Amino acid sequence: MHYAQVQAFGQAPQYLEGPDLPEPAAGQVRLKVLASAVHRLVQMRANGKHFSATSVPLDPSSDGVGIDEATGQVYYVSMFAAPMLAEYANADIKRLVPIPAGADPIAVAALTNPVSSSWLALTERVHDLKPGFSVLVLGVTGTSGRTAIPVARKFGAGTIIGAARNEKALQALVADGSIDKYIVLGDADALSNATAALGHVDVILDYVYGAAASTVLSALQTNADGPPTQYVNIGTIAQEESISLNAQTLRAKNLTLAGSAPGSYSLTGAGKQVPGIVALAATLPKPADVVPYALSEVARVWDTDEARKKRLVLLPWGQ
């Protein structure tokens, strides 16, 4: 069986050949792996920068899509349920979610993790939202930010405001009806004025963090007589792990601050959300920045500009 493993943290996984898997244990099923995406989590595991990666050799994958060849049923394989950078995987049946017939395995592999980021933020870290709530998505033009749009709509958002650096991309999202308005993450003074002009926002889903988040939180207008603005950090696209936040901002605004990732919510609670997450991901088209490659090419494509800026999906059986 062919598979890929990291032999040393910080290096690309190597494509290897080894013995076939043992027979599935009780409660397991053998799947032919169709696709496994290289999420940011996967990259962190390969670099030894995630708590789940403690030793090598390591399959750094997190989740993926496989098919039970005996029945023809295609499944989403939940996070860490099985090593997915391999031709076959023995997975716990309880950790599998059936995927509707006709869904694109590559799209589901690529999008389930991004969909889960905003889905879990809205179900596990945000509370008491009223129908028609407003949401500001910082980093809306990235894969996760774009999937936050249909997730927010599903949960009843009435107004979605997108924020990113690329104004042309933001204008396109307004033109196709995905978002209702936008602000540009650029000049600090302009961003401050644009944020203040928004008025009250019920939820902020932040994939950017850093200076942009600091400016938005400082300029945000909240309503002392109404519901708070609930800010949730999900990512750090800006690659800045801290922000400057004046104490006066917290004392003068009706604002709550939270993060969303394992550790801030229970894995039991998150697990209950997986079927809904997969069902939504299965309805979404494959974005243009999702790039499939054969698993045999993993060492060549792993540390490339394309891998850093787009979302790789590795296919154990090639294209």
UniProtKB/TrEMBL annotation:
Coiled coil: none annotated. InterPro entries: GroES-like_sf, NAD(P)-bd_dom_sf, Zn-ADH-like_protein. This is Quinone oxidoreductase. SUPFAM superfamilies: GroES-like, NAD(P)-binding Rossmann-fold domains. It comes from Sporothrix bragantina.
